[in-house]
Fold:
Amino acid sequence: MSVSRRDFVKNVSLVSAGFGLLQPFNLPAQSGTPQLRLGFIGVGLRGQSHLQMCLERSDVAVKVICDVDDRMLGMSKELIRKSGKAMPEIVTGSDTAYRDMLRTDKIDAVIIATPWEWHKPMITDSISAGLKYIATEVVLGITLEDHWEVVRAAEAANAHVMMLENACYRRDILAILNMVRQGLFGELVHLQAGYQHDLRGVKFNDGVTPYNSGVEFGAKGFSEARWRTNHSVHRNGDLYPTHDVGPMAMMIDINRGNRFETLSSFATKSRGLHDYIVKKGGKDHPNAKQLFKLGDIVTTHIKCANGETIFLQHDTNLPRPYSLGFRVQGTNGIWMNLNNGIYIEGVSKYDHEHWDDANAWYVKYEHPLLKRWG
Amino acid sequence: MSVSRRDFVKNVSLVSAGFGLLQPFNLPAQSGTPQLRLGFIGVGLRGQSHLQMCLERSDVAVKVICDVDDRMLGMSKELIRKSGKAMPEIVTGSDTAYRDMLRTDKIDAVIIATPWEWHKPMITDSISAGLKYIATEVVLGITLEDHWEVVRAAEAANAHVMMLENACYRRDILAILNMVRQGLFGELVHLQAGYQHDLRGVKFNDGVTPYNSGVEFGAKGFSEARWRTNHSVHRNGDLYPTHDVGPMAMMIDINRGNRFETLSSFATKSRGLHDYIVKKGGKDHPNAKQLFKLGDIVTTHIKCANGETIFLQHDTNLPRPYSLGFRVQGTNGIWMNLNNGIYIEGVSKYDHEHWDDANAWYVKYEHPLLKRWG
Structure:
């Protein structure tokens, strides 16, 4: 069953809002509810997370799933069996088998959750096949030209490509975005954020269990260790900027009256991944000889057309607690999420003028939008 | 009375450690204690703070003070009278009168606490006059060439020039430096800090009281507003980097086997100072027409020869709580002072892997060096 574009857009925005949230929606099942017909390219662990959320919805029908990995397909079939939903068509057998499922008489939209280097060809192939609604895991592509290819293809076909950047939908980010739009921070001046997540236990495993289980990667690794780690071997740069730049871009209207203009990026030496292999696998493990191009911390500055600066960090190779390290600063105040501190001139009442000694905790807020921090 | 170089160096290191600390030393007075003979160039509010500390010591004799401002000289004389110490010689009358006091038969050492642009000539004039021990408020000079002039003069005369950067002696910085040197953080990889201090109430006043009292500056301002604000009018850059880069430089041995190699710096638009004038003085105040070159936030990246990156911020024009925002990160862990959080792999026990939700507060430490954070 097909749906009208208008209903579809309404539905897909609901679906989009659900991606990546920890608590999926539980809408009551209704007979006769229009259903969005979905195809999945990639049902690894990330794709299965999206699949599970879709299986819990009455307004989505999973029509076809595609993967090249039998273990992942088996796990996905088990999820579908447990849901009681109809078993979708299974497409597999080769790296390009996904093209067989990209037909608008089967599906209205596709969700892509594959290794990064596959996103661009899968997006453009989906558009070429006539699909108008493509949701993809981050990133859109590897090179700048990859991204332009996606933009050109989408614009030529009037297709909608949505990157599933869940950080844009964090509750704190949406609250701060609302405050920004209501002018609480004044005119924004400077923003910071980072993908600061110790991924050593993701980049390496024992080839069987996904996390913290060993020091293998590539052909001997499982799940993300199989493909993602190679990007740390061969590339030095901010490999994964959307968790941080996505929310920032919304707040200062990037490509909606503002744009990134100038960029400067620095990388540190590379130590963390080698150290992890030696610590966990011993200095004689064959991977202890592996060189990694990726600097442990990559910092990037961006100057925007409207005069703001953005500071980004990519920090995935060292032991550290998780923090996206958001900072939103304007002419009236500042929010930083590391200390959960928010200061708005004339609104926040601090016992002490310093943040360094954790005095943010004694702040008293009187503004209704700030009650959460009170 | 003169002192031997060896005793002097011992004494001056005690004095140096005291500069900028909130609690001055209270050594017992001893008759016959060798005394360091000090001269002061500049006894404005900052110089008076140093003067007061020296007056409380029995091993320092203030022999001469110099300033061009009668009000500041009067305040200083009052401090000296209250201390019961002998009144020093007073030198005043012109911008170059200070040269009259720079004679080694009068003083062993000089403390310079004048407007920034005067530091370099006063340092080099002190060295030319034969003085071997010169302590100066930050910064050493305005231009890169200023700094080289100081280095060349000091090396040629075997003189010692100490910049009185108090952030290097913060208790937390000294504790972290000790941990760094004991290897707790492993090999250092990335460092951050910033001069993040809302100085609007310092850059502007009513010409009579120093802080938060008006929107005048330059000839109509008092104390720092009289001279410091002009740097925000005419210059765009990190005007005051030593609070942040000083402690970082110690931790990674800059000029002791390591060095700054590459630098990139970005400035935001300038809004904060104008906004402050309008908010406090009204849009019709003459200073509301003043343009300021200084971007509200200036961010600077440095890559070091040993592969570390440093990230600095200069953020003095916007409403914000004070924080120097230190971050010290190595192959074994990370410290950030905004949340007072420290994580060392295998040592820190977190209830939760995330810092974002303030779980740093629930950390339990077992390492003896970390008890302060326990």
